[in-house]
Amino acid sequence: MTTTIDRDAMRPLYVFLWLKIKTSSYILKNTSSSALSFNSLLMGFTFYIPLESTKVKVYIKRISYRYLDTMKKSTLAILQGLKSVGINFIVSFPCVLLEEVIRAIDSERTFKHVRVTREEEGVGISAGAYLGGKKPAILMQNSGLGNSINAFASLINFYRIPLLLLISHRGVLGEEVAAQIPMGLATPKLLQVLGIPFFEPFSAEEISKTIKKAQAVAESNQKPFAILLTKPVLAK
Fold first, then answer.
1. Residues 92-105: tens digit of each pLDDT
2. How is domain 73-234 classified at the architecture level of CATH?
3. Residue 40 and residue 38: Cα distance in Å, rounded?
4. How much is the average pLDDT of 74-95?
5. Could you state, in order of their start, the residue ranges of all structural domains in the chain?
6. Which residues pair with 27 in a beta bridge?
7. Using CB atoms within 10 A as the burial measure, which of 27, 78, 79, 141 is most buried?
8. Exposure string (b/e) for 145-160, b if CB count within 10 Å is 16 or more?
9. Any residues with CB less than 8 A from the CB of 204 and at least 6 apart, and which?
């Protein structure tokens, strides 16, 4: 079900959202024939938007990033790439570098999005989704690769599941947190030991094409494939 509102009237709301979007998740829900309730799940408040004007369509169930016109090129490229290869089930683990990507995925009705608190749990859920007929991908930080080595070796690799991994690569050139560096240096070696091939795009423009190539190889070889995404690439 959809309704419409005046885009000009929404401009103050856009500014408000831009200030709050990094710390809250939002859902629009239908409360009456004359107003929408805009509920912040994390901030815990509700306010109402009158619906007298009718110019711009928005979904009642959720507000999408595309109406804010603020997504980075890298986020748009990731969404485009995932859609182009038919990914329809995504598991994500929180990461500051993937924050915008995760929220954008959450706003897309194309994907079934499952958030997890442990990376190996996400690997298991992804495997189950694949066996159930879905085409999964998982988003995690490279530290999570270390936490889920056994799940990849004894589950994903053993049962030949073509799982697409989008991994934020912390601990490389420009890293501000020293504790991230050891895992950053070890990540490519761990992937090699696990027999998981990987690409590392060097610009936002390369991401979509990289996803297409990675998924094609994963499905052809019936093996997982990783894409390492660095902070400079995700920042664009």
1. 999 999 999 999 99
2. 3-Layer(aba) Sandwich (3.40)
3. 7
4. 95
5. 2-67, 73-234
6. 39
7. 78
8. bebbeebbeebbbeee
9. 72, 73, 74, 77, 233, 236
